[in-house]
Write a structure and sequence with these properties.
Elements: H1 7-18, H2 39-44
Length: about 50
């Protein structure tokens, strides 16, 4: 067989095969996205024919 991989090497190999499926941080740990549209944005930009 070969030598055993370090945790970093193992993780890199798994990411190489499967890709990075999960982000490193969760949504609540990140800064708010300025492009993210909230309910207020939709209300301000509601077309007139939607009453």
């Amino acid at each position: 067989m070969g030598r055993e991989l370090t945790p970093e090497e193992r993780r890199r190999k798994i990411d190489e095969i499967f890709g990075d499926v999960l982000p490193d941080t969760t949504k609540d740990e990140r800064e708010p996205d300025p492009e993210q549209r909230d309910e207020d944005w939709y209300l301000r930009n509601k077309p007139p024919h939607h009453g």
